[in-house]
Amino acid sequence: MSRDTPPRRGRATLNRVTARLPVFPLGTVLFPGLVLPLHIFEERYRALVRHLVGLPEGAPREFGVVAIQAGWEVALGAERAGREVTLHEVGCTAELRQVTELADGGFDIVTVGRRRFRIAGVDEAAAPYLTAEVEWLPEPAGTDEVADLLAARVISVFRQYLGLVRPDPQEISEQLPEDPTVLSHLVAATAALTVADRQRLLAIDDTAARLRAELRLLNRETALLRHVRAVPVPLNELAGPPTPN
């Protein structure tokens, strides 16, 4: 491809820019464009919200959301005790859109995912909350025929999946985005996937590759849902512990 050829959507650009971000460890994965409401009750994160609200007009009010690698309950207890928690390498910034201050000094906030990043280093001493040196991950630009074709297939399979998890047809009648990148983020955040599955999807730079991975996951989940509905299972089996098989 010559230098004058515009980049294709789904192909990551290679410019690497770093920044320092406040970091909020969570037991979930945030994707660009998705809404994330949060209840802020710990003092260190109250301080983070106060810092963001106090920024000059026009300054980006965002922090990094990074999923915790260990089990959420274990990691949350470790963080509250001041012990180190293990974070995933790739996260997504959350832009502060709405803040409601509560009588006890906490906050209810609404954020929207914006930009993916990779953590280069974490600083636990620079502020009451974690901060990190991050590298912005490239986002696709231009057009990509492969991603367009995959997006159509993902929409079809995703509607079948929704039909199995949402019996009410009115719940699946909403218009799905046609842009392949936006669609890939919506599917990753909406489907009932594990944190590990979502994290792997977030870390994929190429839209077409993310859509291919989602096709595999959706086909897997759809097949499992159909199998469970097709095979009657006694209630006493559902209530018992899982077998080694």
TrEMBL record:
The chain crosses the membrane at residues 21-41. Keywords: Membrane, Transmembrane, Transmembrane helix. The keyword Transmembrane applies. SUPFAM superfamilies: PUA domain-like (SSF88697). InterPro entries: Lon_prtase_N (IPR003111), Lon_prtase_N_sf (IPR046336), PUA-like_sf (IPR015947). Pfam families: LON_substr_bdg. The keyword Transmembrane applies. Residues 21-222 form the Lon N-terminal domain. This is Lon N-terminal domain-containing protein. It comes from Micromonospora narathiwatensis.
